[in-house]
Structures are given as structure tokens and as C-alpha cells.
Design goal:
globular; Carbamate kinase; VC0802-like; 16 strands; alpha/beta; 440 residues; binds adenosine-5'-diphosphate; binds magnesium ion; binds aspartic acid; six-stranded antiparallel sheet
């Protein structure tokens, strides 16, 4: 069985959904199709939720009505028959009635998650109406029946595996399943999600749970590129990368993949393919244990980073000191991405500043604490990159004009990371494109 995940732009227009129906009906192999919300929907739902959190019911109502209008237009073009149109409109009515009811309830975090779930619930149900109209036999598997996260918001792969196999057993004779990406249930049994971009994570978790032959991530670009195509003009797709390389790129900002979506596939050794819905014949990128080649593969950037420096006048790196520093971050469940030390100071970076004030307060007894926000991590990723000839020389020569705040080298054989002020991110990515890849 294989997994085919289609992102927001792949289902964002009626004609794209038609195209998806063709892609999923090719070949005899049974498939589980994972769909995101239509592009723009989750952003709109986040907006509605924020307005409700600020008690702006009028603003929220306006956004709900605007979104409903978009869906009415969408279903009119999606469905081909009167019966199909009626069914699709009934689905739209059901979900927008729900959103309108929410307007009258006092806002809570649980309600926020319910609002965010509407996008994937709508896209999958509407797609199934279209499949039914086309006479394409399929089963809709509600993700909320099997996709769960624990108290630490970590997916429960063992439990997902058991629940999903029990569900699939009931449909032995079926070959096509459709389910929602992104949404799940939390430890309290409430509707929750796998964070923004989480449909990739859903696909990889399902692939691991059923030990799929392949996990295909269909999107709007022909695979993982060597640099961020939103920022750099000339970028090229990478044919093959390893799980480790892909995980580093995803974690350090390559938006094409959810930051932590690689581990389930890697753990079960299911190959992941990145493919283009708009150009299905393109080769794309294949991600397996084998990296294919040695050397620099790609660069990526992650914004919203805060650097914290703790400088001690006493003998800073006496043993036990780093443990005490790390314990503060552990206490506030804040993970550290980069770390550098000198004789008298240690600098770390975090991407979650929810508990920054408490962390700084608890670090102050250890020495002077400096905080720099608005930083970006630039990651240079490639198999055995740290051992590849002249990479460091080319790297630093190409970005000579950029003030670099931190450097991390040697922690992983696949990654060299730099910390720069976010104002320098675009220039750094452009210079690296020339210096490391010979591309303008
Ligand atoms: P989907 O909605 O299908 O999940 P995303 O928008 O999440 O799609 O991811 C695809 C986008 O990721 C591309 O359109 C591209 O702009 C962006 N992107 C960022 N970095 C990279 C990269 N290194 N390679 C390919 N795409 C990238
Ligand atoms: N719809 C969700 C989002 O926009 C999940 C996804 O698209 O992967 O973040
Ligand atoms: Mg995505």
C-alpha cells in the first residue's frame, strides 16, 4: 500500500482536485490519500480564531462569511451534477453552521483547535463527493479515529498503528482510502493538530504505521531544491537525499517538509518522494537511508530565532556549569538549536520564546545575560559535509561581507549552521547560492 499526500495548492482549485483524482487512480496498488485544507483556508481559520480570541465577533463573522462564499464558488465548479452540487453544498452548510455557532460560545484553546480542524474536514469530504460522482470507489477514514498525540504533543505511533490496522481490516476489499492531514486527537481526547504544515507529518506517520511501500508528498514544486525558491531566483531540484539530510533541511526551514515529518518514515525505512502535482512527470526528490553522494546538497533558513549569551566573570566552564544552564531550558521545555562556548561565555539559540523572561531570570545568577532576537539560522546541509574539501573555505569566502553571530560546525556530519541577523538572511542565501552551487 502507498501513501499519497496532497498539499493545499494541490487541492486549492476545483481543477486541481480533478487532477488529483486522476493521479490517485493510476496503478493497481492500494492507496491512502492524505489531503490538506484548500490553500488559504487554514490561514483564514487562524485569522477567525484570533479575532474571536480578541472578542471581535463582528470581524470573525465577516471572515467566516467571506470564507463560506469562497467555498460556495468552489463546490459549484468542483461538482459536475446537481446531486453532487447539493451534497457538496450540504457539507459546506454543515461546517459553516458550526463556525457560526462557535461565534456565540466563549473562546477557549479547545475551541481554537476545533476551528482549525474545519479546513481538512471540508477538503476531504468535498473531494469524496467528487470521487463518488466520478464513480471512483473509495472509503473516507476519519483521522480523528486513529491519529493521536500524547501529553507532550508527540504522535503515538504504536497506538496509531493498532487503531489504523483495526480500521483497515474492515475494508479488506477496498483499494482507495482518503483521510485528513494535520488533525488529530490529544491526550484529553479533544480535537488537536500536528502544527502548521502537519499534513506531511500525518502522511509519514501513516506510512510508518502501515509500513507503506512509499510515502509520496505531492506539492507545487518539483522536489526539494538546493535553496529557498521563495528567496533565491535560480534554484535546482535535488534528485536524491538521505533521511538525515532531509530531516535537517526540514527542521532548519525548508518549508516543503514539516519540520519533524521525516522520523516516522526513517524509523521504518519507508522511502519518501517529493513530487509536483502540476508537473507529475518531473522526477522530484527521493529520500531514503542512502544519501546518493557526498558534499553540499542544500541550504535553508529558519527565522524567529533568539540568541542568549551567558557571560560569567568567574571561571565559567567549570564542570557542572553547562548542566545548570541546560537545566533551566529543560525546566521550561525549550529546546536549544545551536550552542557555542568560549572560556567565559556560552551562547545558545532557541526558536520558542514563550518562556524567555523566566529563562533569562533563572540564568542571571550565573552571569550577565544578553538576548538578541530577530536572528536567523542558515543551515548548509549535505552528506559528510564537514569532511568535504574546501567547503568551509568556499562558505566563508562567499559570505565575507555578512556579520555572523554564531557558527556551529562538527555537531552533525551533515550540517554547518550560521546565525545571522534576519536582515541579512536574504543576502546570505543569495551569496551561498553563488559560492556553494555556482548559481546566480
Ligand atoms: P503544500 O501546501 O503542498 O504542503 P508548502 O507550501 O508547504 O506546500 O511547501 C511547498 C513550498 O515550499 C514550495 O512552493 C516552495 O516555495 C517552498 N520551499 C521552501 N524551501 C524549499 C526548498 N528547499 N525546496 C523546495 N521548496 C521549498
Ligand atoms: N492545513 C494545514 C496548514 O496549512 C496543514 C498542512 O497544510 O499541512 O498548516
Ligand atoms: Mg506544507
Amino acid at each position: 500500500m502507498k501513501i499519497m499526500k496532497f498539499g493545499g495548492t494541490s487541492v486549492g482549485k476545483p481543477e486541481r482536485m480533478h487532477q488529483v483524482s486522476q493521479l490517485i487512480t493510476k496503478g493497481d496498488e492500494p492507496k491512502i490519500v492524505v489531503l490538506s485544507a484548500l490553500s488559504g483556508t487554514t490561514n483564514a481559520l487562524v485569522g477567525i480564531s484570533n479575532l474571536l480570541a480578541q472578542s471581535d465577533r463582528g470581524g470573525a463573522k465577516q471572515s467566516i462569511d467571506q470564507l463560506e462564499l469562497h467555498y460556495r464558488g468552489f463546490v459549484d465548479q468542483l461538482a459536475q451534477t446537481d446531486t453532487g452540487k447539493a451534497k457538496a453544498n450540504a457539507i459546506v452548510s454543515e461546517h459553516f453552521e458550526f463556525l457560526n455557532i462557535i461565534l456565540r460560545i466563549s473562546f477557549s484553546e479547545a475551541l481554537n483547535k476545533d476551528i482549525l480542524a474545519q479546513g481538512e474536514l471540508l477538503s476531504t469530504k468535498l473531494f469524496c463527493v467528487f470521487l463518488e460522482e466520478q464513480g471512483i470507489d473509495h472509503v473516507l477514514l476519519p483521522a480523528l479515529d486513529f491519529m493521536t498525540i500524547d501529553i507532550n504533543e508527540e504522535p503515538q505511533l504504536g497506538s496509531i498503528k493498532i487503531k489504523l490496522s483495526q480500521i483497515l481490516k474492515q475494508f479488506n476489499d477496498k483499494k482507495l482510502f482518503v483521510t485528513q492531514g494535520y488533525i488529530c486527537r490529544n491526550a484529553r481526547g479533544e480535537v488537536d493538530n500536528l502544527k502548521r504544515g502537519g499534513s506531511d507529518y500525518t502522511a509519514s506517520l501513516i506510512a510508518a504505521a502501515i509500513k507503506a511501500t512509499v510515502c509520496e508528498i505531492w506539492t507545487d514544486i518539483d522536489g526539494m531544491h538546493n535553496n529557498d525558491p521563495r528567496i533565491v531566483k535560480k534554484t535546482v531540484p535535488i534528485k536524491q537525499i538521505s533521511f538525515d539530510e532531509a530531516a535537517e533541511l526540514a527542521y532548519f526551514g525548508a518549508k516543503i517538509l514539516h519540520p519533524t515529518c521525516i522520523w516516522p518514515a526513517q524509523q521504518t525505512n519507508v522511502p519518501v518522494k517529493l513530487l509536483n502535482t502540476m508537473q507529475p512527470e518531473a522526477e522530484g526528490t527521493v529520500i531514503t537511508e542512502d544519501a546518493g553522494s557526498v558534499g553540499v546538497k542544500a541550504v535553508a533558513a529558519k527565522d524567529g530565532i533568539t540568541a542568549i549569551k551567558i557571560k560569567s566573570s568567574r571561571m565559567l566552564l567549570a564542570y557542572g556549569f553547562l548542566r545548570k544552564v541546560f537545566e533551566v531550558f529543560e525546566k521550561y521545555r525549550t529546546s536549544i538549536d545551536m550552542i557555542t562556548t568560549s572560556e567565559v561565555a556560552v551562547s545558545v539559540t532557541i526558536d520558542n520564546d514563550t518562556h524567555l523572561a523566566e529563562i533569562v531570570k533563572e540564568l542571571q545568577p550565573f552571569g550577565a545575560v544578553d538576548v538578541d532576537d530577530n536572528q536567523s539560522i542558515i543551515s548548509i546541509v549535505g552528506n559528510e559535509i564537514a569532511q568535504t574539501d574546501q567547503v568551509l573555505q568556499r562558505l566563508f569566502e562567499s559570505i565575507a561581507e555578512i556579520p555572523v553571530r554564531m557558527v556551529s560546525y562538527g555537531g552533525s556530519p551533515h550540517n554547518i549552521s550560521l546565525l545571522v541577523h534576519s536582515d541579512h538572511k536574504v543576502k546570505t542565501l543569495q551569496l551561498l547560492n553563488v559560492g556553494l552551487f555556482g548559481l546566480e
